[in-house]
Amino acid sequence: MREEQVKKILKLTGVAFLLLFCLLPFMWVVVVSLVKEPDFLLPQVAFDVTFDNYSDVLTSGSLHLFEYLRNSLVVSAVAALAATLFASLAAYAITRLKFPGRLLIPLVLLAFSMFPQISIVGYLFKMMIGLGWINTHAGLIFPYITLGLPLALWIMLSYFSEISTELDRAALVDGATRIQVLHKIILPLAAPGALSATLLVFIYSFNEFLFAMMLTTDYRARTIPVGIALFEGLHGQIPWGHLMAVAVISVVPVILLAAVFQRKIIRGLLQGAIKG
Amino acid sequence: MKESKDRYLPNEIRDAYLFILPMLLFAVVFILLPVLGTLVTSLFREVTFLPSRFSGLDNYLRLTTDRHFWQSVRFTLLFVGVSVAAELFLGVILALILNESIPGRGFVRVAVLVPWAIPIAVSARMWELIFNFDYGVVNFLVQQLGLAGAPLNWLGSATGAFCAIVISDVWKTTPFMTIILLAGLAAIPQDLYKQAMVDGTTFLQRFFYITLPLLRPVLVVALLFRTIDAVRIFDLIYVLTGGGPGGGTTSLSLYAFKYYTSGDFGYGSAISLIVFLIAGLLAVFYVRFTGFREAVK
After folding, report:
1. Which of A112, A263, B34, B254 could form a disulfide with A124 if both were Cys (CB 3.0 to 4.6 A apart)?
2. Predicted confidence pLDDT, tens digits, chain A (276 residues)
3. Closest C-alpha to A241, from A8, A36, A25, A100
4. Chain A residues 147-176 with a CB less than 8 Å from chain B
5. What are the structural domains of chain A?
């Protein structure tokens, strides 16, 4: 049938377009990171493949690449775990206990998650000066936990509400405490949800820019996105080869997570955005 | 979650609040308090090295005559309109295609997550290179394909910079849009389409009378999230154009940030609060007028 053939061609064109659209720009980053002269498109410049850009940025101490990466990983991991923990506690209460405000709290958190960061960061900066937390890991971890909470809460809510309350009722009758019920019964059953929440909060924290820009001053707490944004290179004029090598290295953690846990991440995104 | 109206048990209420307390503490201290602080600060003349004093609505009055502020408002709204519309359009098309059984689904899924997972700061530097005047690949292609005789000044002209920002944003967020819409499409019963095919409908009829109405709840949620996100755009512009040329691409968030970093916290706070209000108004608009409530039920 003609319509079938048209459909098939459309489908393949669409898939090809999507793949090129998503991957080609970053492929370009990889290419430039592996080339000696970034202006090789000009007719008089040679296309020389080299690993120098990588060895340069990996061996240079003054770029602080490893410090930025370490800060990003530490801050994001702690924030992701803490947000998931606090969200699980809250989700337990919201799905298992009756109290005034039970339905309001998830909506309030949802509304909070839509607050523009710029309306938070100015005063947060003053608070952090007061606490002496400017340019510290704690100064980023605490706000990142908070930014991750709404998403983590909605994900945990959707998993917890799918788990039958029979089991935990029985355990409570047998004399278990609520914390034990959450820890021994519900969390193991909702482990995939906890993984989704942790992964998503990790990636969001890893990518966060405005707070990191405002609340850090140097390599002791600065995260990799800010490091890359402010990257001036080793000798003035933007060294694109070096910058793109840093870019490739810095996205390895998130791309790996996305590739390995694609199903978990997509399910988490959907629960955060649609269900509830 | 259904609310049953039976009585509350005191010890259950106490336990519930204990479980919720850590989350609530974080939300109050690191979101609610700073926003209220911003509101209060916006009522003060608060500039570094000067004594802070209450100034009422002075900062807001200053906004009304600030040409650069209105330029930012125009730019931000234009950016929201154009980029969200483009993302929605492209997202719907891609979702329709991916909803069919396609080869290499797992690989496509990973590919879709790549733009989403890369930090905006990184993708902004990526586009900065791609749109480079002298040796960016876009200018190379444009000239090779004969679309323009001379290299286009992408990041150095107002229109070029606007286009570059929209393209970068579309690249970064369309995959997310596609994923959400795809889930919405998957929930539409296939029988409806089979029946409609039997009735001899065209593809467009099926799209407008079956797909679109049934996709509406998901569409509205996706639109809400994207719009609110676009209103507060900061990272991409800060890194890609720095707000230039001539302040032509300064978003409201970036404009407020510039006052924060120059030490004028009162005025910066007033601008931040305008961003907050615009986001709030748009959210209210979506919830009231587009059936968001049914979507979230």
Report:
1. B34
2. 577 788 788 788 888 888 899 999 999 999 999 998 887 877 777 788 888 899 988 888 888 999 999 999 999 999 999 999 999 999 999 999 999 989 999 999 999 999 999 999 999 999 999 999 999 999 999 999 999 999 999 999 999 999 988 888 889 999 889 999 999 899 999 999 999 999 999 999 999 999 999 999 999 999 999 999 998 765 657 888 999 999 999 999 999 998 899 888 888 888 776 653
3. A36
4. 149, 153, 157, 161
5. 2-52 (no CATH), 55-273 (1.10.3720.10)
Domain ranges of chain B: 67-296
- What is the ipTM for the molecules in this complex? 0.91
Q: Tell me the residues of chain B between 144 and 173 that have a Cβ less than 8 Å away from chain A.
A: 171
Task: Report d(CA B135, CA B40) in Å as an integer.
Answer: 48
Residues in chain A: 276
Q: Which of A9, A148, A166 is nearest to A81 (CA)?
A: A148
Q: Does B5 touch chain A (CB under 8 A)?
A: no
In chain A, residues 16-45 whose CB comes closer than 8 Å to chain B: 18-19, 21-23, 25-26, 28-29, 32, 38-42
| CB < 8 Å to B44, chain A | none
Please report residues of A whose CB lies closer than 8 A to that of B3.
102-103
If one looks up domain B67-296 in CATH, what number appears?
1.10.3720.10
Chain B residues within 8 A of A114 when measuring between CB atoms: 228, 279, 283
Query: Could you give the CA distance from residue B296 to residue B118 in angstroms, rounded to a whole number?
Result: 29
What region, left, alpha or beta, does residue A218 occupy, with left being phi > 0 and alpha being psi -120 to 50 degrees? Answer: beta
